[in-house]
């Protein structure tokens, strides 16, 4: 082999095939190793983002909330209408304001302006809400749970 005055190679030697194979194997190992390191470093972060997004979606689908302006119970994309200015409406309004606190039947009656009604009226209103929610959202247990003359949201639906 010789060089011309313009530094161009005029004749090349043939390359040994064993060296070519070793070079291909080494480059393959380096490429696969590099790809493995990149995946090893990024996979946990991608997986946690996916899980967070999935858990957020599941939680939003399982959460039940009450829209006081439209008088509707919502769970994900499903909804059911609650009659406005009824005991059911005022029960939902008070219970969903703070779902972890028991609300007395008298509080619901006072909010509705119907203090002279019997406490059983709230019991029947809560029963109607539970039946509507069971049909609309296909719930297995009751949406609102009662304890004597008090009502609150079931722990499963916070």
Write up what this structure looks like.
With 158 residues, the protein is an alpha+beta fold. Helix content is 53%, strand content 14%. The protein has helices at residues 17-62, 87-97, 105-112, 120-137, and strands spanning 64-67, 72-75, 78-81, 103-104, 144-147, 150-153. The strands form 2 sheets. Strands 1-2-3 form a 3-stranded antiparallel β-sheet. It is rod-shaped and about 110 Å long. The chain starts with 16 loop residues before the first helix and ends in a 5-residue tail after the last strand.
Defining key terms:
6 strands; 2 domains; three-stranded antiparallel beta sheet; 158 residues; single chain; Arc Repressor Mutant, subunit A; 14% strand; 4 helices; alpha+beta
Give a summary of the structure in a few sentences.
The chain is α+β, with helices and mostly antiparallel strands and 158 residues long. It is 53% helix and 14% strand. α2 (87-97) packs across α3 (105-112).
Helix/strand layout:
Elements lengths: L16 H46 L1 E4 L4 E4 L2 E4 L5 H11 L5 E2 H8 L7 H18 L6 E4 L2 E4 L5
Antiparallel strand pairs: 1-2, 2-3, 4-6, 5-6
Average pLDDT rating: 85
Helix-strand topology string: HEEEHEHHEE
Total domain units:
2
The assembly state of the depicted protein chains is: single chain
Give the helix tally.
4
Distance between the termini: 82 Å
Strand order of the largest sheet: 1-2-3
Beta fraction of the residues? 5-15%
User: What share of residues is helical?
Assistant: 40-55%
| Topology-level CATH name of the largest domain | Arc Repressor Mutant, subunit A
């Amino acid at each position: 082999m010789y060089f011309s005055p313009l530094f161009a190679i005029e004749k090349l030697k043939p390359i040994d095939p064993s060296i070519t194979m070793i070079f291909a194997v080494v480059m393959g190992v380096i490429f696969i190793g590099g790809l493995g390191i990149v995946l090893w470093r990024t996979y946990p972060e991608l997986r946690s983002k996916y899980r967070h997004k999935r858990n957020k979606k599941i939680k939003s689908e399982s959460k039940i909330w009450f829209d006081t302006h439209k008088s509707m119970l919502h769970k994900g994309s499903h909804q059911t209408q609650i009659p406005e200015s009824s005991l059911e409406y005022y029960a939902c309004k008070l219970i969903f304001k703070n779902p972890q606190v028991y609300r007395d039947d008298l509080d619901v009656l006072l909010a509705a302006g119907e203090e002279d009604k019997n406490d059983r009226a709230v019991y029947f209103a809560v029963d109607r809400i539970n039946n509507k929610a069971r049909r609309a959202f296909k719930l297995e247990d009751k949406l609102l749970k009662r304890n004597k003359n008090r009502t609150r949201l079931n722990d499963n639906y916070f």
